[in-house]
Recover the amino acids of this structure.
């Protein structure tokens, strides 16, 4: 539009330029994490799957994490900055060294920020590397950091799973018995039990015929196998989410299954039976069924929780896989 104001022509351009924003493709967080773990392996020679396993472990032991992005490892401030530090800001590496902290700079800005993914991961890798880079060295480093046997075992097992499948994207689940068999179950968690003294039922009973296959429900490692006077022949699998899965009253084990073995959802590990409530070999004191229990570890203690909602969810997901 052209206007004449006081003999001066003023050109007014009224242009509406549409803003075209091309939507960026959604980033796959698993790929982003893998890229970060592998780049840190190249830099420090600490195998990526150990760093990934530590990160996964810490994801489930903290209610909040220092980083809001990809990395869940959370160093306590006094350990990161030094016990004498009263600063609430990211410090330079030289400041942290003076204060006796372990925080390191992983992205080259000379600041060790305990909320920065690169700094966090580099600091953990550097902590491990001071002990060495062999499997045994790394195991010792992890124990010296957490000073808890179960933490070390969980992390080492998760690393074994990640190494075997060469990915951290392992979210599939499977119902513990094949859906084409006759079975039934209801929520029995917390019900009273009398054998061996008054106690509560820490699981869900899935009733099925003798010999029906029992399957791993998640990715994990066989942690326990053998006889228990309550559970009879039983197997325990620790998964990559700090959860212990307990399969009890089995009629027997799948041939070749052993402690330390990596399993995936759907792997047969045993068979439905009615064993337990007595010395080894006791059977038939109750109808055949699978006792399925779940126990969560938070880095300090382990407790049972109700598996029934998870079984219902996995049953539905397993049924979809068959369609």
């Amino acid at each position: 539009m052209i206007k004449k104001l006081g003999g001066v022509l003023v050109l007014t351009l009224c242009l509406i330029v549409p803003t075209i924003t091309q939507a960026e493709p959604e980033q796959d967080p698993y790929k982003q994490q893998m890229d970060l773990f592998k780049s840190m392996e190249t830099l420090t020679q600490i195998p990526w799957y150990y760093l990934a396993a530590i990160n996964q472990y810490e994801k489930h032991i903290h209610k909040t994490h220092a980083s809001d992005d990809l990395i869940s490892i959370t160093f306590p401030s006094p350990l990161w900055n030094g016990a004498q530090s009263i600063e609430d800001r990211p410090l330079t590496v030289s400041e942290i060294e003076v204060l006796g902290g372990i925080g390191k700079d992983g992205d080259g800005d000379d600041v060790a920020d305990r909320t920065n993914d690169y700094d966090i991961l580099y600091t953990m890798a550097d902590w491990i590397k001071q002990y060495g880079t062999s499997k045994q060295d790394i195991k010792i480093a992890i124990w010296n950091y957490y000073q808890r046997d179960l933490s070390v075992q969980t992390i080492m097992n998760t690393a074994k799973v990640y190494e075997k499948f060469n990915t951290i994207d392992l979210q599939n689940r499977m119902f513990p018995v094949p859906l084409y068999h006759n079975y039934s179950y209801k929520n029995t968690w917390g019900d009273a039990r009398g054998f061996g003294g008054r106690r509560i039922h820490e699981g869900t009973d899935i009733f099925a015929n003798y010999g029906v296959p029992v399957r791993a429900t998640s990715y994990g490692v066989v942690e326990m196998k053998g006889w228990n006077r309550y559970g009879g022949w039983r197997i325990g699998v620790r998964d990559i989410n700090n959860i212990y899965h307990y399969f009890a009253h089995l009629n027997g084990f799948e041939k070749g299954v052993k402690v330390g073995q990596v399993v995936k959802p759907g792997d047969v590990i045993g068979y439905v039976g009615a064993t337990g409530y007595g010395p080894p070999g006791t059977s038939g004191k109750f109808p055949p069924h699978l006792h399925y229990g779940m126990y969560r570890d938070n880095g300090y203690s382990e407790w049972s929780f109700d598996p029934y909602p998870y079984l219902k969810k996995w049953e539905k997901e397993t049924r979809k896989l068959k369609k």
